[in-house]
Amino acid sequence: MTQSHPERRTGLGRGLEALIPQTTSGGAAPIEIPISRIRGNPYQPRQRLEQKALESLAGSIAVHGVLQPILVTEVLDGYQIIAGERRVRAAQMVGLDHIPAIVRQMAERDQLAVAIVENIQRADLNAMEEAHGYRQLADEFKLTQDEIAARVGRARSTVANTLRLLELEPSVQEALGDGHITEGHARALAGASPATQRQLVASIAERGLSVRQTEELVRRLRDRPSTKPQSGRDSDGQLERLEEDLRQALGTKVLLARSRKGGRIVIEYYSDEDFSRLFDRLTGGVS
To answer: For the domain 14-122, what is the CATH code?
Structure first.
């Protein structure tokens, strides 16, 4: 059985401290709870646990015990994990029947936010898991991107860019989630058509392409002459440079398409909040 350390700070980090009421002198201390009465967090954003990392943690626990309490909330049949699933599993692997825990009552959306923050701080989430976690906060709990950013300690633009990964072609999302490509590669592929994304994603890993090489390959394929009319897109890259300037100014994907009598400007947005942000920027906040 492990020993609890009432005087020990949890060490969960600033992001979690913003969400979890911290204990004060004389407040509730970690308690030992039976592992058999603990159940998993249905809002756990991490979709896979690395077996080697789990075995390494189990080895440490076998020698030193569980040094940092897990965080749980009390439910009818026991306790539900908010943060610390790996510690619970590793403790089970070495045969512990109790584990130190801090018990908190917490809204479901905050349980998900805390799980995301803990995993981010431990670098346990891949980019796709993080994106799905943000999407769950937005869809199930109706949080705006600003509210998500505040809860997980990220900039709003970071949250928005991570959510855009969910618009990638499924094979690219899978490759990113499996670690075959980096987030930089995925963002480079976002500028290509779904067919081109599927074509290139395998080549990146097979040929060991860098992010810069991927960006250049996407650009060449996009600019490659086609049998279809190009609607006046010039060959000297002027439209591409103008598009990039607009992307930087608006913070979203912009497409310019010339025609014989003028042209079109296509500005993409990815949520109602994103639309409001663009509307305010384009109109100067005047409705």
So the answer is: 3.90.1530.10
Distance CA 65, CA 129 (A): 29
The token pair at 159 is 């949250």
Q: Is 85 designated active site? A: yes
Q: What is the pTM of this model?
A: 0.55
Same fold, 14-122 and 169-224: no
From the list 55, 74, 85, 147, the catalytic residue is: 85
**118 and 12 Cβ atoms separated by less than 8 Å:** yes
The CATH class of the 169-224 domain is mainly alpha
Distance in angstroms (rounded) separating the CA atoms of residues 253 and 243: 8
- Residue spans per domain, the chain: 14-122, 169-224, 231-287
What pLDDT, in 10s, does the model give residues 130-167? 888 888 888 877 888 998 888 888 889 999 999 999 99
Half-sphere exposure (CA, 13 Å, Cβ side) for 110?
14
User: Which is nearest to 39 in space by CA: 4, 95, 78, 83?
Assistant: 78
